Amino acid sequence: MPKNASLLDRREAAGRIRLCHGDLHLRNICVLDGEPRLFDCIEFNDQIATVDVLYDLAFLLMDLWHRGFPQFANLVMNRYLDDADDEDGFVLLPFFMAVRAAVRAHVTATQVEEGSRDSAKLIAEARSYFQLAKTLLTETPPRLAAIGGLSGSGKTTVAEALAPRIGTPPGARIVESDRIRKAMHGVPAETRLPDKAYRPGVSERVYRQLAWLSELILAEGGSVVADAVFDKPEDRDRIERAASGANVPFAGFWLAADPSVLWRRVSERKGGPSDATVDILSRQLQRDAGALTWRKIEADRKVAEIAAEMAASIGGIAPSEVSVRKKTGS
Ligand SMILES: Nc1ncnc2c1ncn2[C@@H]1O[C@H](COP(=O)(O)OP(=O)(O)OP(=O)(O)O)[C@@H](O)[C@H]1O
Ligand SMILES: [Mg+2]
Questions:
Q1: Ligand 1 pocket by C-beta < 6 Å: which residues?
Q2: Rounded CA gap, 100 and 124, in Å?
């Protein structure tokens, strides 16, 4: 049976194939009253617009990646999956994006054949879509990168810069303790939780869920970036076991910076899923994180530099390779 066939069938049985937008690329999205709005969906043929919901999303992801915005593609994918309860479909995204890219290559090449003006530009464009489709079909072995460190060390910021560079586009799934904790309590990621949501018993459940979800994704062949403080040895052990359980290489990073840097960043931070305050940071600073075997990374540097160091150490994609469009110069 072809790869993915049984997963695609299971998704159909689970109701993941629905009447969707059908044409969800960037030219069909605008910002209206501060909110993104989708328009110009396929209305003339319900059959064409009835697809796997992630195939619908894949058009937007492919378009973002092809236009040279890998970080946005990765962010859209992660935010969508955070909300959609659709983790098993993550590993299908490169395939769905490949189909979208191949169709764009075909449509663009047809325009050249039909004698469109500007054929040199169109030929380059068709080739770049085709190249992207080939890249998307090239399997990358899964890996797990865990980023730990005290609040303000930049774990979430760095995770978002690193994830597009790991695995096949759209990059790694980010599993973040703060988002898991908010989801567990049934509140949006940016809603503050009361202190009782941070009791040790709750935190243990959060870390367990984080490891469980990571292993599930890794076992299916997807790559993961795990983002949590990880200041307890047992939490670090648990995420390492998620990698070994799925037989996937593990890389642990510990972001370290002077307390004054952490202090400033936490006090100046606006928005985001973390509820950490300077009080919480003070408590973290007093705790002993135990013996650290993870690679220590100086956090008081440019985000891109930190992500590049991490990506290089785990065999991620070089920045020049992240975008096909940039590479082909089209
Ligand atoms: N390398 C960096 N250079 C400058 N500012 C940074 C850097 N990394 C992160 N920041 C900023 O510092 C603040 C804290 O970063 P971030 O939220 O990523 O930290 P965190 O480690 O995830 O914290 P928490 O444990 O609370 O989730 C943010 O406002 C972020 O924009
Ligand atoms: Mg964070």
A1: 149, 151-157, 178, 229, 265, 269, 272, 274, 276, 301, 303
A2: 17
Quick one: which ligand is closest to 229's CA? 1
pLDDT band at residue 17 under the 50/70/90 scheme? very high
pTM, whole model, 2 decimals?
A: 0.93
Residue 316: per-residue pLDDT = 63
Token representation of residue 244? 């070994």
Q: Distance, CA 274 to ligand 1 centroid (Å)?
A: 10
Q: Six-digit token pair at 290? A: 């135990």
Query: What are the two backbone dihedrals, phi and then psi, of residue 266, each rounded to the nearest 5 degrees?
Result: -65, -40
Which whole number is the average pLDDT over 243-270?
A: 97
| β-strands 50-52, 17-19 pairing | antiparallel
Q: Which atom of ligand 1 is nearest to the CA of 269?
A: 29
In ligand 1, the atom with minimum distance to the C-alpha of 306 is 1
Ligand nearest to the CA of 281: 1
SS3 289: coil
Give all domains of the chain, ordered by start, each with its CATH number: 5-137 (no CATH), 144-317 (3.40.50.300)
Cβ-based neighbour number of residue 185 at 10 Å? 13
Q: Whose atoms come closest to the Cα of 154: which ligand? A: 1
Residue from 56, 42, 139, 45 nearest 99 by CA: 56
